[in-house]
Specification:
single chain; mainly alpha
């Protein structure tokens, strides 16, 4: 079975989904910021920006689309690794490998890579970026706070990756201003745009193609 073919098909759909599902929210944000119909400001003596709630809802919608697409990528990787371990190693060795780890399923597979004798120093993929994607996906799938719609990075994830990849430009500037470290008060939202999504997809493809080539 050509596992990489099916993986790429799923990843291609993740990109397609993001590109199309994000358009309505992107259009709303742009229309409000450019004061275009139907979001042309009317006279108002209050100091609140016009259509603030609509703008915030569209931004949250855009973040949700990014998280959903990232979840598709992470799930596709997990499915690939599960089949790769079973077809390429368990069948041949007559041995069952654990898919669970206290630090998460991606750590479990990295342990399997070691057990089957892979030299991960030769892997061309950015494994740290892939792990950040998995951690971000977990945050989106398991929210902790009822009172907010946004998804933030967890304290433990920020301790491991103090300059996270999946943040907005504004949050990244705040981190850079603080010499690459997160201030105690800053808990940035998990943010996935098209560029970040395509970057992690490229790394997932590198990892999986490399694993298949090693078999």
């Amino acid at each position: 079975m050509d596992l990489v073919f099916f993986l790429r098909d799923r990843l291609k759909f993740a990109k397609y989904f993001y590109s199309n599902a994000s358009k309505p929210f992107t259009n709303i944000v742009a229309a409000i910021e450019n004061e275009e119909p139907p979001f042309v400001p009317e006279y108002d003596e209050s100091e609140e920006p016009p259509y603030l709630q609509e703008w915030q809802d569209a931004k949250t919608g855009l973040e949700s689309v990014g998280l959903t697409a990232l979840s598709m990528v992470a799930s596709s990787l997990q499915l690939f690794l599960n089949d790769w371990v079973h077809l390429r190693h368990e069948r041949r060795r007559g041995k069952k490998y654990k898919r669970k780890h206290a630090k998460g399923w991606f750590h479990a597979y990295r342990k399997i890579f070691e057990d089957v004798g892979l030299d991960m120093e030769g892997c061309p993929a950015d494994l740290d970026l892939i792990e950040q994607a998995v951690l971000a996906r977990n945050r989106g799938q398991h929210p902790e706070v009822l009172t907010m719609l946004q998804t933030t990075h967890s304290k433990s994830d920020l301790e491991k990756y103090p300059s996270p990849y999946f943040v907005s430009d504004a949050d990244q500037k705040a981190i850079s201003f603080d010499d690459g470290e997160l201030s105690w008060w800053l808990s940035p939202n998990v943010y996935v745009d098209e560029v970040k999504l395509e970057a992690v997809i490229a790394e997932v493809e590198k990892l999986c193609a490399w694993l298949e080539a090693d078999c």
